[in-house]
Amino acid sequence: MHSVFPEMDGCNFAFASSPLPSTIPVPAAAAETKSAQLRILMLHGFTQSGPSFRVKTRKLTHLIKHSLSPAILGQYPGGIKFLYPTGPLNLIPADQTGDEASHQEESDNWAWWRTLDTTSQYRELDSTFQRLTDYISLHGPVDGVIGFSQGAALAVMFASWCESSIVPGREFALATQEAPLTIAAPQGPLKFAVCFAGFKGTEQYYPGFYEPKIETPIMHIMGRLDNMVTEKHTMDLFDTCANGVLMAHDGGHYIPLQYNILLPAVAFVESMFREPYYIKDVDGFMRDRKADAVLEIPKAKVERRNSLKSVVLCSRHIKVIRRRRY
Q1: Which of 277, 259, 276 is nearest to 268 (CA)?
Q2: 6-321 falls under which CATH superfamily?
Q3: What is the pLDDT of residues 197-230, one digit of tens each?
Q4: Which residues form the Serine hydrolase domain (predicted)?
């Protein structure tokens, strides 16, 4: 079995499932408020949690909040809300002393499924999708998703799943794959996804997420020194996206903090809400942000099979590969 995370091979974890959150009916007034919010789902990586991921993405979310124009924010009087669910699977390090009681102590290490490879079936995936369904029911539908590592892999699956109502063949593909997903998607298609160090789920069990190709615009960001999720893993995922953008940086397995890496991701998110849906004044955009990288990307239209037209990125630290349709 080939691990996506070779450095974690041999790690001995026990696993315990946490209860799914109850679905509480949302009052009409609360539902109105929720509909006026711009909501972004934030999916943590393996051994992380919602609260810990909030800390790791604080700079990114701050930039997103302060980059959206008043015209965009005017559409969302409830403001921007970043939603940080925690995976359903608690990871408990196996006690080397053999103390049985310690195995029952809850850690703050969580996962969306327990295996760290691209060859096995993710047996906890159904409970993960049920958790996301309950979470969306409680908090309202989201406009986009941002994920890291295992959370990035899940983010792409989630985006694909939410296309079920509009992409011909998606629902059938998910229902008939070797590990079928028959739970109805909790909402319609997303406007965007941003994936840091993402990888593709096991081809044998989950082809329905990737074929037909995913229409949601997705930005994939990979570290050239990442020895946990390699460039090949992210490239394999990128190749499943009809409207994908790929960016590489010179770091490892983490969400970068440098502005010249985060700003292209912020520009990507911003462009999904813009009229006429792309950044025209590149020089003006750059002056405002004191950076040397920016994206020009048309608005996502999931119902149309259009590729992203232009990507403008110039930095010695960044390389972008433009997605082309074949």
Answers
A1: 277
A2: Alpha/Beta hydrolase fold, catalytic domain (3.40.50.1820)
A3: 999 999 999 999 999 999 999 999 999 999 999 9
A4: 36-259
Q: What is the pLDDT of residues 92-146, one digit of tens each?
A: 875 333 344 445 566 889 999 998 789 899 999 999 999 999 999 999 999 999 9
Residue 243 CA to residue 227 CA, distance in Å, equals 26
β-strand 89-93 against 13-17: which pairing, if any?
antiparallel
Q: What is d(CA 180, CA 30) in angstroms, rounded to the nearest whole number? A: 34
Three-state SS at 151 = helix
Q: Is the pTM of this model over 0.85?
A: no
Q: Where are the beta strands (DSSP E) in 177-265?
A: 192-196, 218-223, 244-249
Nearest Cα neighbor of 108 from 170, 6, 16, 217 is: 16
Are the C-beta atoms of 46 and 5 separated by less than 8 Å? Answer: yes
- On whether the CB atoms of residues 231 and 268 are closer than 8 A, the answer is no
Cα 8 from chain centroid (whole Å): 22
Given a contact cutoff of 8 angstroms between Cβ atoms, the answer to whether 112 and 132 are in contact is no
* Both structure tokens of 144: 């986009």
| DSSP letter, residue 15 | E
Which among 250, 132, 145, 261 has a CA at the least distance from the CA of 198? 145
For 12-60, the pLDDT digits (tens) are 333 333 333 333 344 444 444 455 899 999 999 999 999 999 999 999 9
Is the separation of the CB atoms in 268 and 296 below 8 Å? no
Beta strand 110-111 pairing with 89-93:
antiparallel
Which residues make beta-bridge pairs with 194? Answer: 146, 219
| H-state helical runs in 50-189 | 50-56, 58-67, 70-73, 125-139, 150-161, 170-176
Q: Show the tokens assigned to 121.
A: 């079936």
